[in-house]
Design a protein that fits this description.
Pyrroline-5-carboxylate reductase, 2 domains, 6-PGluconate_DH-like_C_sf, NADP, proline biosynthesis, binds (2S)-3,4-dihydro-2H-pyrrole-2-carboxylic acid, binds 1,4-dihydronicotinamide adenine dinucleotide, ProC C-terminal domain-like fold, alpha/beta, eight-stranded mixed beta sheet, Rossmann fold
């Protein structure tokens, strides 16, 4: 990937996600001299990454000698209106805008940057170990070359899928964007349940962590469906069946998860307003 030939990469928002993507890009060989970062208060871990790579961070950038090849927008959706006018001034006619903000529509970027090529993407936090999954959608201004470029950029932190219908990004956000939190909550609850059942807290946490991680790895590496893997654990009349009955089986957890994903989808739609 050669950001230099198209102008530098301007990262707006060096927090958890912006930092993870930048780290993935640097690990893949991006020249740090082609990176510019705007953030008034970068996450401490990202600050270290930037310092180690000699990348300056500015709280606000009002001028650049060369328009960025890409502006990667990784600020919270709630402050987007405050940030976009400044970024719009820095963009050139060939600048590609890539936003990872939840709920922020392509149209809201087009409003501040009329005529700009914009990609809206939804990654997730396993990006921090380059095991994320991102779903992206492009506006009509994005050329095939720019789309391939965005794909290359986002794939620095994991798999990238593209959709044509932007409306899908809200349920995508609810499933894979927010999804790691549901899995971590499961690990937390499992650990606490183990403690309540008599294990010491450290052992319970270790067992829950290894079980969630090992099950995830098995799910990834196996050819079997999640349903079949679940059935393989569940001996008729055994311990797992007793637990699943309390969870309400597929019906109980399914109802709860469907409601949770619907709430996250709705929140994504509300953030667009
Ligand atoms: N955390 C997650 O799981 C995911 C987050 N996202 C999206 O990524 C975006 C960033 O989220 P996080 O990294 O979690 O948040 P974060 O709070 O870790 O990072 C946001 C960063 O923006 C910086 N910032 C504030 N004002 C700024 C300004 N005027 N100019 C430049 N930077 C500014 C903050 O100092 C902070 O470092 C959000 O839009 C979120 O919807 C997308 C997928 C997953
Ligand atoms: O909770 C949020 O709004 C962000 C978007 C997806 C994950 N975190």
């Amino acid at each position: 990937m050669t950001f230099t030939s198209q102008g530098p990469l301007l990262l707006a928002g060096a927090g958890k996600m912006g930092g993870a993507i930048l780290e993935g890009l640097l690990a893949r060989g991006l020249d740090p001299r082609t990176v510019i970062v705007q953030d008034p208060d970068p996450a401490p871990a990202v600050g270290d990454l930037l310092a180690d790579n000699g990348i300056d961070v500015l709280p606000f950038i009002d001028e650049l000698t060369q328009p960025p090849g890409v502006i990667l927008i990784a600020v919270k959706p709630q402050i987007m209106e405050a940030v976009l006018p400044g970024l719009a001034k820095l963009a050139g006619p060939h600048t590609l805008v890539v936003s990872i903000a939840a709920g922020r529509r392509l149209a809201s970027f087009e409003k501040f940057m009329p005529g700009a090529a914009v990609v809206r993407a939804m990654p997730n936090t396993p990006a921090a170990i380059r095991r994320g999954i991102t779903v992206a959608v492009a506006n009509k201004r994005v050329t095939p070359v720019q789309r391939a470029f965005a794909d290359d950029l986002l794939s620095a932190v994991g798999e990238v899928l593209w959709v044509d219908d932007e409306a899908l990004l809200d349920p995508v956000t609810a499933v894979s964007g927010s999804g790691p939190a549901y899995v971590f909550l499961l690990a937390e609850c499992l650990a606490e349940a183990g403690r309540a059942a008599g294990l010491d807290a450290k052992l319970a946490a270790q067992l829950a962590r290894a079980t969630v991680a090992g099950s995830g790895a098995l799910l990834e590496q196996s050819d079997l469906s999640a349903e079949q893997l679940r059935k393989n654990v569940t001996s008729p009349g055994g311990t797992t069946a007793a637990a699943l009955e309390v969870l309400g089986g597929v019906d109980g957890l399914q109802k709860l998860m469907t409601a949770a994903v619907a709430a996250a989808t709705k929140r994504g739609r509300d953030l667009a307003k």
